[in-house]
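Hi support team,

I'm opening this ticket because the web form for multi-chain structure prediction keeps timing out on my end. I have pasted the exact lines I submitted so you can reproduce it. The total is 546 residues across two entries, so I didn't expect it to be a heavy job. Is there a limit I'm missing, or should I split the entries? Thanks in advance, R.K.
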Amino acid sequence: MTLDDILASLFGDAHDVALDGDSLSGRGTLPQGGVVHVLGFAHRAELGVDQAIALAGRVLDIARTDDGLPILFLIDSSSQRMSRRDELMGLSEYLAHLAKALLFAEQAGHRSVGLLYGGSAAGAFIASALACGVLVALPGAHPEVMDLPSMSRVTKLPLAVLQEKAKTTPVFAPGMENLVLAGAIAEVWDPARPLSGQLEALLAQPTAGDPRGALGKARGGRTKALDIAERVVALATAHG
Amino acid sequence: MNAASATPHARLSWFEAGARERLAALLDPGSFEEFIGPEKREISPHLKIFDLPAQFDDGIVVGGARIDGAPVLVAAQEGRFMGGAFGEVHGAKLTGLLRAAKALKRDVVIAFDTGGVRLQEANAGELAISEIIRALVEARTAGVRVVGLIGGRAGCYGGGGLISGCCSTLVVSEQGRISVSGPEVIETNKGVEEFDSRDRALVWRTMGGKHRYLIGGADIFVDDNAAAFRDAAIVALGRPAGFDRKRLAAEQARLERRLTRFGADRDGRDVWRELGLTQADAVPELSTDAFLHQAADHRETADDAR
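Hello R.K., no limit was hit. The queue was backed up. Here is the completed structure from your submission:
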């Protein structure tokens, strides 16, 4: 689905979401009357220091209001911007700040729903999509930690070997299905039905804790993470 | 009290040491209890797919201990195993530790030494970083301090850099590097004209400990010495805790100001001149004392804005 299709399927004409460069912002009204803030990226945007601080500022502006309106974060991004300038300025702080802003907004009563409709990768994926309270995706979304050719260069494993193993090993290979199995993506939405109803249904569900470890275990994509984390909590508690 | 200065660890290089040596030097003697230690053999279930050897602690040591008498939860990454990278088990240990910190209202010290996500289990590692960030922020919201120590061989890269950016206080040595994309990754993707990863001086000027300390990317600068890291951790654990609206607004202003002041600069030296350092070109060669003296009146700080 294109960005215009997505906005129409969510809000009809009842929105003022605008694109400024590669950044999205505005508000929309759902059929049942619920209003949501909309933020996000389009056109496979790279997330550098300038984009991250502008977006974090918008998130904090929303967090400052006490209307409790949810944030819908639409994502079609690339990776973090890989440049000398971004690292000189301290990109790690800017991406961390964006993630913290989203988590803080959630604590302040503004639930966040990430909707992945295109790409996202590496540090940009962590700071935006994965920092939302819940992440959903549309068919055709293509998240990845790193593409296989780059992974081949970094790990010194031959590309052919990675391509072969990617067919049977969801834990490392790029792609939406693998991130569903790992528990990163809660739901894949059906583009044949109005997205508005699917968002309203999601917002009607209560939230509690971080469900991704349990999802990854139930789906078989991450069999150890939940148990290890729970054992550490139990041991630390017993240690006193 | 400063027990460390009287111990054999006083001259231990943090950079050269392994995770367990670092903890021995950092913590009060005899106070450490490990959670899911190597005897449990909780290894990565994924490395064998690539015919790679596993390690019984999956490259991270977590547990409970005391520092200068105060109870803390601690984690130390082993940069010599898979570059200290976050895999499923490795990451889950830190997630669990931070969730326990929230429940127990216990401060946390993390000795980072990591290249980021372990690519052989990339999806599990990426997700672990995100779960850690969420658990860390929730612990801080509950009033817990999370102190990061950075001065290891592997630096603090990728998702590790993002986690460090969520800590309440960062301690760094000259050897500590904090960055998202590593030099090789930038060079591979954008070309040697953008970043020559073999130019080590450029690497230190762009992401090294002195630069990070000068721009407010780290809070306490120490010698590459385990006793110095311990002393700094004690100071960091005495700082005010907190994570709230005011602090995030202050961080927003701080990071905006950095781009306004330095955003047009091309090199670390330009930034240091802009800061008003009289010996900007000599920063990489300055001794710790001379550097701290130079930095004192000129550096940007992140107090109450991290």
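A quick check on our side: Confidence is low (pLDDT under 50) at residues 1-6 of chain B. Let us know if the file doesn't open in your viewer.
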